[in-house]
Amino acid sequence: MSVPVEWAVSPGLTPYDEAVRAMEQRAEEIASAGARELAWLVEHPPVYTAGTSARDGDLVTADRFPVFKTGRGGQYTYHGPGQRVIYLMLDLRARGRDVHRFVETVEAMAIDTLAAFHLLGERRKGRVGVWVAGPSGREEKIAAVGIRLRHWVSFHGASLNVAPDLSHYDGIVPCGIKEFGVTSLAKLGIRAPMSVVDAALRASFERHFGATIEGTPPIAGAKPNEKVAR
User: Fold this and answer.
1) Quick one: 28 exposed, middle or buried, by C-beta within 10 A (0-12, 13-18, 19+)?
2) Is 224 inside any structural domain?
């Protein structure tokens, strides 16, 4: 792609439902009006989200956090403070119209980001996302990927666990997989500020998807000391 992708970061916590509406609007503008592509980085208040393959039994504690049904691929996942979510509104009409390759490239972006912190992230057949070896050698998921396409424009994207409260995953069966755990940079001993993680993500994104320019978030996140309605 010769036109740089906008790169925007929302400070604070961005309500999940508002983010979805903003993504859908931007994806429509890209598809119908030629708006610039966007990579948008956010953190959310604690929520559980159900993808198109989510099973009812995988929601273990239904009243713990708000639950949103969403059109992305995948099953149940968690979003919350300390997790970096990167939403990708990219035009696959100009990027090959290959959904499988696109998901693999998003995974590769996460793997390269982990490599910047000297961590080996890996794919596993039949398990979308990125996995690392935990302290005991057990495989644990550190990055999730869930994509939706409309008119060949993507939205939703990926999440990377930087330093979330991992006990919040106890209310679901993450991605429908019981035999493996979840982890984070912090759990693995890497106490990286979110800004440092963002810089690594941006460098990796540019290697895989092309140049970026500074952009404006579609909506502003709440300031850190503001309460976000849940």
Assistant:
1) middle
2) no
Average pLDDT over residues 25-47: 97
Q: What is the pTM of this model?
A: 0.92
The pLDDT tens digits of the residues spanning 68-90 come to 999 887 889 999 999 999 999 99
The tokens describing 95, both together, are 């990027």
Which residue in this structure is represented by tokens 């010769």?
A: 2
Structure tokens belonging to residue 204: 């990796």
Give residue 187's domain range: 5-214
Q: Is the pLDDT of residue 10 over 50?
A: yes
* Ramachandran sector of residue 223 (left: φ over 0; alpha: ψ -120 to 50; beta: rest): beta
71 domain residue, yes or no: yes
Percentage above 90 pLDDT, the chain: 77
In a domain, 73, yes or no: yes
Beta carbons of 174 and 50 less than 8 angstroms apart: no
Stretch 156-163: mean pLDDT: 97
Q: In the block, which residue shows the tokens 């990926």? A: 158
CATH code of 165's domain? 3.30.930.10
The answer to whether 155 and 33 are in contact (CB under 8 A) is no
Average pLDDT over residues 144-170: 96
Q: Tell me, what amino acid is at 143? A: A
R_g (Cα) of the chain, nearest Å: 16
Q: Which residues are catalytic?
A: 175
Residues 6+ apart with CB under 8 A from 34: none
Residue 227 lies in a domain: no
Phi, psi of 186, rounded to the nearest 5 degrees: -65, -45
